[in-house]
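hey so i finally got around to running the thing on that chain from the lab meeting. sorry it took forever, my laptop kept dying and i had to restart like 3 times. anyway pasting the input first so we r on the same page abt which one it is
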Amino acid sequence: MKLKNYVLAAFIMLFCVLNVSAQSKKVAVVGFYSDKIIGFSELDGVGEGLLTEVLNLRDNPDFDLTPILNTYHDAFFNDYAKDFPFDLVPEKEVLANQEYQDYVPKYELDEDALKRYVFIDGYKHIYEGAFGKVNEEAVAKIFSDTADGVMFVEVHFELTKGFGIGSTATVKMKAFTRISLYDETGKKVFVINESAKSKKSSVMVGGIPVMKTTKILPMCESALEQLLKDLDKRLPKIIKKSDKL
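ok and heres what got predicted. didnt touch it at all, straight out
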């Protein structure tokens, strides 16, 4: 009887050790930003005229995506972080890392080019993805003493077809997010790409969508709202199918 008790106690201790070990993984979020350039690749028959409108919108100080990005940021850290099989390094600790702040990434953008991006305060623009291996490995190394991996999060917006044709055509907005995880060596663990279409729409005038901030911002907000709802449902399932850190 005593032997059985000892065996049971040993199994319980082993389970506790393994459970603690599984929960001890940590990831540092090293990028969190959005893009003020609205894409339109899904719209047919538009070109230079719409590009001019898009660039004008980018330079318009009233086109402020900061509140929208903050909404996504808060949902990510307060809600979605719980779905990951690891803990996130406290944000203040990541952003206070001097080596991170001093890091000069490959493909660094100049001051003018950076104006198209909107950042959560303290984060840097560090290119990751195709040809971004140097950056991924370098940033992972910076945090290798405190984290088992690094994560990049971004959200951007793109116009897409709504309803109707010709003079009655409308457009909607799509919100896209990319969530990328790399291990402590900079090797890719998983990339999540999700998108959702806004419920709100806008009209087209002369074949070009109305690009006023009073039209575009509510559509971006609506698209993000739908994206957050989709992530609520899909993120836990997506993560389970992804490779573990």
